[in-house]
Structures are given as C-alpha cells and as structure tokens.
Amino acid sequence: MSKFNFISKKQEEVKCVTCAIDASEQLQNQENRRRTNLVISIAVVLPLLILLYKFLPQLVDYLTFDLAGLKPESHLGAAVNFFFYDTVKILILLFLISSLMGAVNAYFPVDRLRIYLTTKKLYGLEYFFASFFGAVTPFCSCSSIPLFIGFVKGGIPLGVTFAYLITSPLVNEVAVAMFLGLFGIKATAVYAGSGILLGMVGGYVLGKMKLDKYLSDWVRQVQENSIKENEEWEGEKTPFIDRLPIIIQDGWDIVRKVLLYVIIGIAIGAAMHGYVPENFFTEYLSADKWYAVPLAVILAVPMYANAAGIVPVIQVFVAKGVPLGTAIAFMMAVVGLSLPEATLLKKVMKWKLIGIFFGTISLFIILLGYLFNYML
User: Fold this and answer.
1) What is the DSSP string of 291-342?
2) If DSSP codes are grouped into helix, strand and coil, which group holds residue 349?
3) Residue 120 gets which letter from DSSP?
4) Total Cβ atoms within 10 A of residue 195
5) What does the domain layout of the chain look like in residue ranges?
6) What is the pLDDT of residue 218?
7) Is the pLDDT reported for residue 279 higher than 80?
8) Fewer C-beta within 10 Å: the chain N or C terminus?
C-alpha cells in the first residue's frame, strides 16, 4: 500500500469519526431541546390547570348565571351549573391524578407495593391506611374514581382499593366540621368513625370475594401496559425526564377513554341535583316506619352529592322528624354510592362487580343506620 493511499484512508476514517461525532451531537442537541420544551410545557400547563381547578366554581357561576342568564334558584340553573362544574372538575382531576400515579409508578413502581401488600401479613392495617387516606382526601364519589383507577392500574389489591373508594366520599374534614357544628361531638364521632370502619370492613369483605376477574378488559390492558413499560424502563435505566411524555400520554388516554362515561354520569347527577325535592324523602322516612332505613338507602343510591353538600339537607331531615341514624344512612348512601358513580365505574369493572359492590355497601349502611338509631 502506497503512502498516499494510507494517508487517504486515515483521512477517510477521521472524516467518518468526525461525522459520527457531529451526528451524535446533533441528536443530543435535539434531545436536549425536546426535554427543554417538555419542561417548559409542563411549567406552563400545570399551573394553568391548577388555577382553573381553584377558580372553577366562580368561572362556572359566571358562565351559567351571568353570561347565560340562568337563575341560581331555578331547577335548570342548578342542574346546568352542577353539570359543567363537576364535569370539568373530574376531567382535570382524572388527568392530573392519572399522570401523578404514572409518575409515582415510574419513580417507585406501584408493582413493588402490590407485591409487598400481597406477600406481607399486615393484619388488616392495609385496609385501615387505605380508609384513612380516603378520609383525608376531599373527593366526592365520582372524583374518587381517578385515584381508584390509578390504584387499579398499579395492581394494588382490589379490596384495598375498595377500602379507599368507600371511605373517600363518606368522610372529609369539611363535612366533619359541619357535622360537629350541627349535631355535636357524639354524632360526629359516630359518623366519622363508622365511615372509616365501613371502608375497612367493606374493603376486607370485597377483597375476600376474589373479584379481580370482573375487572373490565380495558383495565387489564392498562395494567399489562403499565407492567411492560416499567420493565422496559427498569431494564434500560430510562431517565425520568424521558418517561414523562409516555406518562402524560397515558394520563390523556385515560381521560379520553372515560370521557363519555363522565359526561353521562354527571348529566344524571345534575338532573337529580336540580330537580329532586327534599320533601319527597322526609314524608316516607319518619321514625314510626320500621322500613325507613332501608328505604332511605334505596332512595339515596341513585342520587349524587358530596358530603359537605348533603349535610345541610340532613339537618333539614332531622328538623322535620327523620331519626338521625336514618338521616346519616341516607347521607352515606348518597355520597358513597350513586348512579353517576356506577356509570363511571363501568369503564373500570363489569356490571356484576358494580352490583356486588353496591349491594354489599348498601347492606352495611342499612345495618349502620339501625345501629345509629339505637345509639343516637
């Protein structure tokens, strides 16, 4: 090989190495720009969503009553206001909580927690922690669904997720404060304690029924995809910033796929919220009727309201002669079980599981209602 050819070959090799380095630098620059754009987008969109959530009541009131001209005291005005407020609120919560659960799962895979909960003997503490967590999260029955979906997606045992789902709408600090002011410390302690106990017992009983086979195919697919993503990320040591696009996309996919169920469920709740009168119930729930407690629960299940919203109604019931235990049972059934909630849960579980869940919790609430009437 001549000296000229040797030098030419070396020059070509150097040129190839230089091109490879340039290409690598270009890819790195593109990746850095993509990461920067992602961080900027999150820094802009996240505060906007939080602000929208914070000022949503005022915004919806303005659009409904000022702009559209509906009267707050009218049935139509109350129903329309309720529909838009709860729909937007739940969609925001669904996206934020689904994304947050995805981020938690990426940083600390929830599958590890699932394995821990299913292999360690915790003597029922897992149900207490889930119920207590539900009590400190101020969500109504429909707003609790996003976090419930996140737990199910992560493979948390179904009984534990049910413990959260049962307690979350039943007990919150606002309702406890209102209850304390209206009914005293004894009734408040009974209400709050029984709400947490109901979540623990209900979750335990439902967990022992081995109902996982009645989860919807969509949830099973979500669980499988989540496990695969975690395995890939763990194997490839993918940085958290590179996982964010997939996490956010997964959160948006969940919102998109349950959107119809949210709209239908909240529309049903809005109609009931605006058009069902209080006097319809008090007439049939008086103290002299033995069937008042089960009737209260049956009448309450199709309705929809949060705990803070129903407490003033309970005060009216008691003032009109409805026993406090019957009124609390009615409240628990309204906030813990509702037709809109069942509509949302249809995306997560099959109708048989929804029926078992509603039937079991309804039975427990009826028993608690009779116990409350005896104690109070």
Assistant:
1) THHHHHHHHHTT----HHHHHHHHHHHHHTT--HHHHHHHHHHHHHS-HHHH
2) strand
3) S
4) 29
5) 55-375
6) 76
7) no
8) N
Contact (Cβ atoms closer than 8 angstroms) between residue 265 and residue 343: yes
Is the pLDDT reported for residue 330 higher than 70?
yes
Write the pLDDT tens digit of every residue in 168-187. 877 766 677 667 767 788 88
The total of other beta-carbon atoms located within 10 Å of residue 245's CB is 12
Mean pLDDT across the stretch 38-48? Answer: 77
One-letter amino acid for residue 172 of the chain? N
Q: Which two tokens stand for residue 61?
A: 């009131």
**Degrees to nearest 5, angle at CA 349 with 347 and 354:** 115
Q: Which amino acid is at 333?
A: A
Structure tokens at 181: 């002011």
pTM for this entry: 0.62
d(Cα 310, Cα 300) in Å, to the nearest integer? 11
Per-position DSSP letters for 151-186, written without gaps between them = HHHTT--HHHHHHHHHHHHH--HHHHHHHHHHHHHH
